[in-house]
Structures are given as C-alpha cells and as structure tokens.
Amino acid sequence: MDRLQRFPEQGVTERAALDGLLDSQWVGVLSCVADGRPLAVPMLYARDGDRILLHGSTGAGALRRVAAGAPAVLTVFALDALVVAPTTFESSVNYRSATVRGPLETLSDEERAASLDAFSEVLVPGRTAEVRPPSRKELAATLALSLPIRPDGWLLKVADDWPATPEEADADPDVWSGLVPVRTVLEDPVPAPWATGLPVPPSVRRLSP
Q1: How many helices (H) and strands (E) does the chain have?
Q2: What is its EC number (predicted)?
Q3: How far apart are CA 32 and CA 117, in angstroms?
Q4: Which residues contact 48 (CB under 8 A, 6 or more apart)?
Q5: What is the pTM of this model?
Q6: Which of 18, 38, 166, 183 could be joined to 173 by an S-S link, Cβ 3.0–4.6 Å?
Q7: In this structure, how many other beta carbons lie within 10 angstroms of the beta carbon of residue 53?
Q8: Residue 175 DSSP class
Q9: What are phi and psi of 182, to 5 degrees?
C-alpha cells in the first residue's frame, strides 16, 4: 500500500512531479470498499494546493460511502507515448500513474460554495466571473469533499524510456522501433444551438491554442 511492488525504480517521490500529473489531468477513479464490496467511480477532480477537491450529487452512493468515513483512493493516469519495440512482447507504453489515499473530508456549508468555485476555476479559469453563482438549491444538492495530499499518502510511478534494443529483444536489427507520443488538445469551441451568434467568452477562448 505504501510502496511500489513492481518496477520500484520507476517510483518518483518529488511532490512537484505529483502536482504536475494531477494538474495535467481532469479525471480520476475514486475507489473504496463498502459493505465488503468494491466501488470504483470515474470522477472529475481538481487540485487545490495540498488537497484534491471532489464533488457530486448528494444522492451518489459512492460519495455517501466515502463521506461516511470509508477509506478511499483516487487513481489518476496519463498515457504519454506508445513504446513500439522490435517485438510485440517488448512493446509497451510510457505513462504516469498516481494514487492518493486517505479519508475524505466533507466540506462544511460555508466551505462548499468556495470549493466549487475553486473547482470550476481549475477546469475553466475565469468562468465563475462570467456566470451567476450557484443557487441555494444547487448547493444543497451538492456534496463537496476534500482529499488531503498527505506526505505518506501518495505514490507516483513514471514509465519514460526507449524501447528495448534489438539485442535486448533478440530481434531483427532492421525492424523499426521508437516512440509515438500521445497528447490531448482542446479544439475550437462549438456553441450550443441556442448560443449561436453570441461571442465566445474570454474564459473559453483562452482554453484553445
């Protein structure tokens, strides 16, 4: 639980590297065990300093479980490249993977609105200034949780290497091998049918390259 068992040499302990991975992604999988059964839910998240913010409906079963104190782990994964080796057996991927463990804290009514604004500002910076704030009804229907990033509560694994050489793979030296980088980009915004003709707001314009 607190150390890498497979390829421990790929473990990274620098907190800045963890923050870099968390800040580069938007989606993780929140997992816990409740009543002896596993629960795993893909969720949007946002890092806010030394904590990870999560939110969802007050009717969401998994969130209610972790809010009640069930130990949980958030897993975040980024695929960086296909590693094309001289053989299919040696082919792999370069990736970054992190797990952050611990009990989640349910945020108070006073903290909820601010945390939801912080969450939105991570995903679409500047958007909260362009739209109305959440209503009381919307806040009451939302469960906001915080997962502290404790020094002993996370693991980070980074695979970042060239493929095996033909000699290492016992393969034909004339077979091509190398890396195929993977990247995710935000494309030009597409207006909703009822927003055609309206100017694209600055917060959305800044998202596209």
Answers
A1: 6, 10
A2: 1.-.-.-
A3: 26
A4: 115, 118, 119, 122, 146
A5: 0.88
A6: 166
A7: 20
A8: S
A9: -115, 135
3 state DSSP class of 3: coil
Which tokens go with 174? 């004339």
183 vs 82: CA distance, rounded Å: 11
For residue 170, give the amino acid letter. D
The Cα–Cα gap between 202 and 130 comes to 9
Please answer whether residues 144 and 115 qualify as being in contact, where contact means their C-beta atoms are separated by less than 8 angstroms. yes
Q: In sequence order, which residues have a C-beta less than 8 Å from that of residue 100 and are 6 or more positions away? A: 52, 73, 74, 76, 147, 149, 153, 154
Token duo for residue 36: 């002896």
Residue 144, beta-bridge partner list: 55
C-alpha 18: how far from its chain's center?
11
Domains for the chain: give ranges and CATH numbers.
8-79+93-162 (2.30.110.10)
Judge contact between 43 and 135, C-beta under 8 A: no
Strands 72-84 and 92-102: antiparallel
